[in-house]
Design a protein that fits this description.
The complex is a heterotetramer. Chain A is an alpha/beta fold. In chain A, about 25% of the residues lie in helices and about 20% in strands. Classes of the chains: A alpha/beta, B alpha+beta, C alpha+beta, D alpha/beta.
């Protein structure tokens, strides 16, 4: 822990800190470009010069390249240092174009700031400027190479940090081009990070092109709602339109980066079909009338059938505050305890994990620091992309990664992958503990023994599981394995707040029980809050919902259930209201509301013009946060303090009220919680000659919110069924052929894709929204028949 | 040297056995990247220059992405990423040749070939490029044609060299 | 002494009145009579065009940022040729205080002030000017200036075609 | 004519190459036999250290000291790299050495590799030296045939393989860490130091990088002993002989092996045959393009590291380029800066953009469009580029600019005053 003095201020920093970081800790701002906390120091830009006056290092040095040592006395204001900085900026500006007014970076451009901070004001170079022809980099990123100052941040982010190999730096001397071999879409699912890391306007967000300046945008730190990892994001809106999402910083979860689903999947909030007014039986109405109507209809049901005839379905998309009020509401009125996830498998998985994770919980930062990772049923790039980046950082630090999965899991780093059948995951987990793998073939045994041996040797091992494939049994086994191996555990869950719902569910019912009760007529009124049982629920949901007397839906998106609701109450989308999510490692992460809901100005008409009538009512501003609707029904004050106060009486949520959006969050306290009782899965009667079909999540097109985003349309994969070449050969199917897939409920035509790295004998399909595939349960085997040819039966 | 495949009529970037040899070497070494410069030079030796397809072939042979090859290919000035004539003239423009009349030699060559630096003669025989010091400072002014260095250039000497090369090619 | 001072004070005032009686009156009969303001008088704002007839405004939002009373709003958009322009542009003259900060902020000389001071109306909405009301067919000040000839992004001229630019570089160039 | 002892050039016959027969007939591989049979690796390193040999690639770091930093006794994979990327304008000694006597280098490589206990040596040869590469290929094959290379060399139980890496251009690859990247096949930007190659070099393994001429000296030091080698130098502290490549406005522009410490006047007048066409001597680069100019007043300086450093110049590679009195020094400096700017790897700002800026200023002045402010700009550019770049390339580029500003500022003023180059063109 060396102590050094910078500009007469002393600071003690951890070993290995460089002087630039030490200065930043002191609040001293030194211009720099190539240094980035996540990327490290490389000494390329030569801007962070400081004068080392006394101590082990002397003279003018680049602060990022010098490790802090005891007794250093450093001046950042030394005239020589200032002179050099102004020169470096002058050199960088030699070729920089005169286009700040038409550059999207203008106003939030580090080069603008550093040019001023570096003291370069007058251009002395009167020669001609270098120019470039730009490349089309696909739907997300616009390139303007003339603006490049060659800080190398983009290539270090794209290649080194994110593991992409289709973007880099070409040429030499002052003829450096940062781009692709040929124009085309950036292949990395993390390509949008170029926008954040580029200190000037070389890479800008194509979906945000020319929309708004930084000073006009309404932003608030938030939590990404598109998977369970809880990455910090900063959504920004103007004129009631969510216009962009950029990465926030949370050193425990996402670090500095986010995935493209997170960044470009924001279109759901501006969706044109979004219903922004309460309605009863399809007729728009006012909040007052809708709530009166709701109370009346609900009262009627309760009077007639008793309070237990009312069932509530919450959602992992809802904030913790909403979920907590939901539970209070049911308690106060004696309704059935709420359900927080209609997908039974995901629900039980989350509850088992939340009940048992405890000290085994690991953050993504800890995964990046691990020396041995074993992944079971987890496909990070599709299910939770930032996890793949954490794993890559671990590998870069020498970690060994073993992956057991039926799918052809692609990772942006080296890993040993063993394709196993989904049902082999459980014996593999148990085997890792006992180091016995009798049920596997000899070759696989050797592989697994190697993994077990490395796991035993590791100092900071972590078991990474995919909740969808593991299911409740697998998750339970993995929990036990982590405890007995003294390893960390990280399991991805279904939604951004699955963990919160699980903590609040306690030993409540599950969706099978609920649907059963509804089918038997015990339930007459169903209240869905941001939940869509007709899509996500068990197959019998449709029949069960058909028997109801009252279906109430509160949601911000239009889905099957919302369309058939008796009463529909519009809620705010995640960036429109504050709340808290608990991510899959049990970290409570509050988020702020970036803007108030309303119909985007762009959609109001008059040729894009804002209307010439002035009013203090926001068009389409009716949506309310789900928690606020509940608070109104409960006649509670409309503020978070009382909700948080109520929650904190539960020891899990200790400290919740002290958290603020944009922070690192805080892990829930490990207090005893009962996992749901074990439940045997219904055995499926597999018809003769059927094949097992595994429906899984994809990076784009399967997550309910982002799949509504027009920006992602160009990258949504085709509807396809993946199968091993040997399986394909057995069925006489070749790659790219149209096949017909028939399940108990669905019949669809899709393309066959052979995939040599997946397990033979299995079919894998993405649960693409807007196709019949979205109705198939995720992570579970569905028996199906596959035939050549696509002629309709 | 076969440069056009007789059956497909397409340019042959590198004979199959050479590709196989590189592939085998790449499989044998823990870091196939070390073969990048050798492979690019091999393609260039065979094909005259490295077209995009050459970059792709090299990438595929070494198990790398085309971009990874392009990053290297565009760094070096002696890997030609654009078509060149059958002989590339590298005329030294560094200090020793400059002191001994390099600029006049450049003028002379431009006149004789009728092309500027970076250009190829219409008959596709010569491409004229400047280069940094050739390590022939004692024999300045100097140029390198292909991999052969010629020093103490005079108008007559240049004439003879160009004539001989044209004769060889014909 | 007091008496003298009193007389002097009275006489002086009458003298001024008397003198002014024979001067040309300051008041003019507006609106029948119009007044020519001084050349640097700042009044109604216009959007000018570049010498090639294109809209100068690139919708950079700097005027709206500089405006102390928030009377300017706009939406930028991209034309087919890559030119950034204002999809709509609105100045609320009921709010405008004619301070001129917008013109100082304008990097393209698009927004300029004219000496047209006749901006009054019974309906405040009629004082909300849209782009069609603001855009004039003239360059105003700096008649030769065209921002896109210097911007360096290849809109008016092909990329690298401006006077102060080199032709586009190419990493695959044979020249070292 | 050259009466000084010929060590490195003892087998040299211009236009011919000495392969193994002639090499051995002239005492070749005796140093190797002695080193491998009679000495331990530590003894060889100690001998090299005692000889005071300084690196011949330009920087002049004591070779023995560099070797002693190398973890020769650690049982890890390590590498020896021989730097044959001789691309500094005015330098062509390694080419002469390899054209005349490739086995001398091979013997040196084997001895050095033995001293450093490495089993893989890479010889890095620049693109333009294809004949040298072929000579080396033949020499390596012959040495292998003769049992000097391969497995269990001379019964020591030690193996060595020599790999030849042919480059594809670019001066920056002469920088040792850039060269390592070049061999690895990644973009040849220099690496940050520390870690030095001796700790983390090729593929992260300990690596020693030496110049061709340095390594060629090793067999002679082993055979002749350090005392003999030291005595070859003329000056106090001058050690061994050095290959001087003469170029520019001289009557004889050839490569000579001369003792370290020989006065510049003797080099120019005796060996170079004096300035061409009877013109006067104006300036010279004493050791390649990156060394500040010397002028006529410096002609009596001994050509050795310290005396030249005292004149704020450097011995460099001893590639002496002479300019006669009709040379425009602004033009000469512009030519040199243009070379450095073009050969920058593009990694750090002062080199990539700073050198382009200096080039533009010099172009303006040389073309007569300059003004006095631009002369001041040259000074502030020199001050802010020197020592501020990532590697030594930009610093080297500032060498001639420094010389120009120190000795020929008047020429800059004249350009500005006349509005054209006072020397014509």
């Amino acid at each position: 822990m060396p102590t050094l003095t910078i500009d007469n201020k002393s600071i003690t920093v951890p070993d290995g800190t460089n002087v630039l970081e030490a200065a930043q800790r002191l609040g001293i701002v030194i211009p720099h470009f190539c240094y980035h906390e996540a990327l490290g120091a490389v000494g390329a830009c030569r801007l962070c010069a400081m004068m080392f006056e006394e101590g082990p290092v002397k003279g003018l040095q680049m602060a990022c390249m010098v490790t802090a040592q005891d007794g250093m006395q450093i001046s950042t204001l030394h005239p020589e240092a200032q002179e050099l900085r102004s020169h470096v900026i002058e050199w960088m500006m030699l070729n920089h174009p005169h286009d700040c007014p038409v550059c999207d970076e203008g106003g939030e451009c580090q080069l603008q700031d550093m040019t001023i901070a570096g003291g370069h004001g007058r251009r002395r170079y009167a020669g001609k400027k270098r120019t470039w022809i730009n490349q089309d980099l696909g739907p997300f990123v616009v390139q303007e190479m003339n603006r490049c100052i060659q800080c190398y941040r983009c290539v270090r982010t794209y290649q080194d940090y994110c593991g992409g190999d289709d973007f880099g730096v070409m040429g030499s001397r002052n003829r450096l081009f940062f781009g692709r071999f040929q124009p085309g879409k950036l292949e990395s699912p993390f390509s949008g990070n170029l926008v954040d890391v580029c200190p000037t306007g070389v890479f800008t967000d194509k979906t945000f092109r020319f929309k708004t300046r930084y000073w006009d945008i309404e932003e608030a730190p938030a939590v990404c709602p598109h998977c369970s990892l809880g990455c910090t994001v900063i959504p920004g809106a103007r004129y009631r339109e969510l216009q962009r999402v950029r990465a926030g910083v949370n050193r425990q979860t996402n670090g500095f980066f986010i995935c493209d689903r997170s960044r470009f999947g924001y279109g759901y909030a501006n969706h044109r079909e979004r219903i922004r007014q309460p309605n009863c039986q399809g007729a728009a109405t006012s909040w007052r009338e809708a709530l009166e109507h709701l109370k009346e209809r609900l009262g009627k049901v309760v009077n007639e059938y008793g309070p237990l005839s009312v069932a509530i379905v919450g959602s992992p998309r809802s904030s913790l505050e909403c979920q907590a009020l939901l539970r209070e509401w049911t308690r106060e009125h004696g309704y059935r305890p709420p359900l927080f996830e209609i997908d039974n498998r995901r629900d039980r998985t989350a509850r088992i994990l939340a009940a048992g994770l405890g000290k085994q919980a690991r953050s993504m930062a800890e995964i990046a620091d691990s020396d041995c990772l074993v992944m079971l049923g987890s496909d990070p790039l599709n299910e939770a992309p930032l996890l793949a980046l954490a794993i890559r950082q671990a590998v870069r630090n020498g970690c060994h990664v073993t992956c057991l999965d039926p799918r052809a899991v692609k990772l942006p780093c080296a890993a040993s992958h063993l394709p196993v059948q989904p049902e082999q995951l459980l014996p593999a987990i148990n085997g890792l503990v006992a180091n016995r793998f009798e049920e596997f073939e000899r070759q696989d045994q050797l592989f697994l023994e190697g993994a077990a041996e490395r796991l035993g040797r590791a100092e900071r091992p972590v078991l990474v599981g995919g909740g969808d494939l593991l299911g409740p049994e697998g998750t339970e086994a993995l929990l036990k394995a982590a405890r007995s191996l003294n390893a960390g555990l990280f399991v991805t869950l279904g939604g951004p707040n699955s963990y919160g719902g699980a903590l609040l569910s306690e030993d409540g019912p599950d969706s099978e029980e609920m649907i059963e009760a509804a089918l038997e007529g015990e339930i007459k009124a169903l209240f869905c809050i941001e939940a869509d049982p007709l899509t996500e629920g068990p197959a019998r949901s449709a029949r069960a919902l058909g028997q109801l007397e009252l279906l109430v839906v509160c949601d911000h998106m239009v889905n099957r259930t919302a369309r058939s609701a008796d009463i529909f109450l519009p809620t705010t989308a995640p960036p429109e209201a504050a709340g808290t999510y608990i991510n899959n490692e049990g970290r409570m992460l509050p988020f702020g509301g970036a803007y108030a809901p309303g119909l985007p100005l762009r959609d109001i008409g008059e040729g894009g013009h804002p209307p010439r009538t002035f009013s203090n009512i926001t068009t389409g501003g009716e949506p309310r946060p789900a928690w606020a609707i509940l608070a109104t029904l409960l006649q509670r004050p409309l503020d978070f303090d009382s909700i948080h106060h109520g929650l904190e009486s539960d020891p899990h949520f200790a400290g919740l009220g002290l958290l603020s959006p944009g922070g690192e969050g805080r892990r829930v306290t490990d207090a005893g919680m009962l996992p749901p009782a074990a439940q045997p899965e219904f055995p499926h009667s597999a018809p003769e000659g059927s094949l097992p079909l595994l429906v899984v999540e994809a990076l784009f097109g399967t997550e309910p919110l982002s799949s509504l985003s027009p920006a992602l349309e160009p990258v949504i994969p085709e509807a396809a069924v993946q199968l091993h070449p040997t399986t394909a050969a057995r069925l006489g199917i070749s790659d790219g052929e149209t096949v017909s897939l028939r399940t108990e409920l669905e019949h669809l035509r899709l393309t066959a894709r052979t995939e040599a790295e997946m397990v033979p004998g299995l079919l894998v399909a993405y649960r693409l929204r807007g196709t019949p595939l979205e109705l198939l349960p995720v992570g579970k085997i569905t028996p199906c028949l596959l035939e050549k040819g696509g002629n309709d039966a | 040297m076969e440069t056009v495949n007789q059956t497909t009529g397409k340019d042959v970037l590198l004979p199959d056995d050479t590709i196989e040899a590189f592939r085998a070497k790449a499989a044998d070494t823990p870091h196939p990247r070390e073969l990048i410069v050798d492979l690019l030079r091999a393609i260039q030796d065979h094909h005259g220059w490295v077209p995009d397809a050459g970059i792709e072939l090299a990438a595929q042979t070494l198990g790398l992405s085309p971009l990874q090859l392009e990053e290297i290919a565009t760094f070096y000035d002696k890997i030609y990423r654009q078509p060149v004539g059958r002989k590339v003239i590298h005329l030294c423009d560094s200090i020793c040749c400059w002191t001994t009349g390099g600029e006049q030699v450049a003028e002379l060559l431009r006149d004789k070939l009728g092309i500027g630096f970076g250009e190829t003669t219409p008959d596709g025989v010569f491409t004229l490029l400047p280069t940094c010091c050739l390590g022939a400072c004692g024999d300045a002014p100097a140029m390198m044609i292909g991999l052969t260095t010629y020093g103490r250039l005079t108008a007559e000497k240049i004439d003879t060299i160009l004539r001989e090369i044209r004769q060889q090619i014909d | 002494m007091n008496l003298i001072r009193g007389i002097k004070g009275t006489a002086q005032a009458y003298w001024i009145t008397l003198r002014t009686m024979f001067r040309k009156p300051v008041t003019i009969q507006y609106p029948e009579q119009k007044r020519q303001p001084f050349p640097r008088y700042r009044a109604r704002i216009v959007l000018t065009r570049d010498p090639d007839g294109g809209e100068r405004c690139v919708a950079c939002y700097l005027c709206s940022a500089a405006c102390p009373v928030d009377c300017i709003s706009m939406q930028a958009a991209e034309a087919k040729d890559g030119r950034r322009y204002a999809e709509w542009f609105r100045i609320n003259f009921t709010r405008c205080i004619f301070c001129g900060l917008c013109t100082e902020a304008c990097p393209t000389r698009a927004i300029q002030m004219t000496s047209d001071y006749e901006i009054c109306n019974r309906d405040p909405l009629d004082l909300v000017y849209e782009k069609t009301d603001l855009l004039i067919d003239d360059t105003g000040k700096d008649p030769d200036y065209n921002f896109y000839r210097h911007a360096g992004i290849g809109v008016v001229n092909p990329r690298g075609g401006n006077e102060d630019e080199k032709p586009p570089a190419d990493v695959r160039d044979l020249l070292p | 004519m050259n009466d000084y002892p010929q060590i490195l050039f003892k087998n040299r016959v211009v236009g011919e190459t000495a392969f193994i027969d002639r090499f051995r007939a002239n005492g070749g591989y005796q140093g190797l036999e002695k080193g491998l049979r009679e000495m331990t690796p530590q003894e060889i390193t100690a001998t090299v250290k005692a000889s005071g040999l300084r690196g011949r690639g330009g920087a002049g770091f004591p070779t023995g000291v560099k070797w002693s930093f190398f973890p020769a006794d650690q049982p890890v994979e390590k590498f020896l790299v021989i730097n044959g990327d001789e691309m500094e304008p005015g330098t062509y000694k390694d080419r002469q050495l390899l054209l005349a006597d490739p086995h001398q280098l091979i013997e040196g490589v084997i001895l050095s590799a033995f001293a450093l206990q490495v089993s893989h040596a890479y010889i890095f040869i620049r693109y333009a030296y294809e004949e040298c590469s072929r000579n080396l290929e033949q020499a390596i094959a012959e040495a292998k045939e003769a049992g000097y290379l391969g497995r269990d060399i001379l019964g020591t139980g030690w193996d060595l393989e020599i790999h030849l890496h042919r480059s594809a251009g670019r001066y920056i690859l002469g920088e040792e860490t850039a060269q390592l990247n070049g061999i690895e096949g990644v973009r040849p930007n220099p690496r940050s130091k520390p870690p030095f190659p001796a700790a983390k070099g090729l593929w992260g393994k300990p690596t020693n990088v030496n110049n061709i001429e340095t390594i060629a000296c090793i067999p002679h030091i082993i055979t002749g002993g350090p005392g003999w080698f030291i005595n070859l130098g003329i000056t106090q502290g001058g050690v061994g002989t050095k290959l001087f490549g003469l170029s520019g406005h001289l009557n004889r522009t050839e490569c000579f092996e001369l003792p370290v410490g020989i006065p510049l006047r003797e080099v120019v007048e005796t060996f170079g045959g004096g300035v061409r066409n009877g013109k006067g001597f104006k300036a010279c680069l004493p050791g390649g393009a990156s060394t500040p100019f010397l002028t006529a007043q410096h002609l009596d300086t001994p050509m050795d590291f310290e005396p030249l450093e005292q004149l704020d110049s450097r011995f460099g590679t001893a590639g002496v380029t002479v300019f006669d009195e009709t040379t425009c020094m602004v033009g000469a400096t512009l030519n040199l800066i243009r070379f450095f700017a073009r050969e920058s790897c593009g990694w750090c700002t002062p080199c990539r953009d700073g050198l382009s800026f200096v080039q533009w200023i010099l172009e303006e002045i040389e073309a007569g469009r300059g003004n006095r402010d631009q002369i001041a700009m040259l000074k502030d550019q020199k001050k802010n580029i020197t020592g501020r770049s990532f590697c030594a390339l930009a610093e080297g580029a500032m060498g001639p600019l420094d010389g120009l500003l120190r000795h020929f500022e008047q020429e800059l003023e004249d350009h500005v005053k006349l509005g054209r180059c006072p020397f014509g063109d």
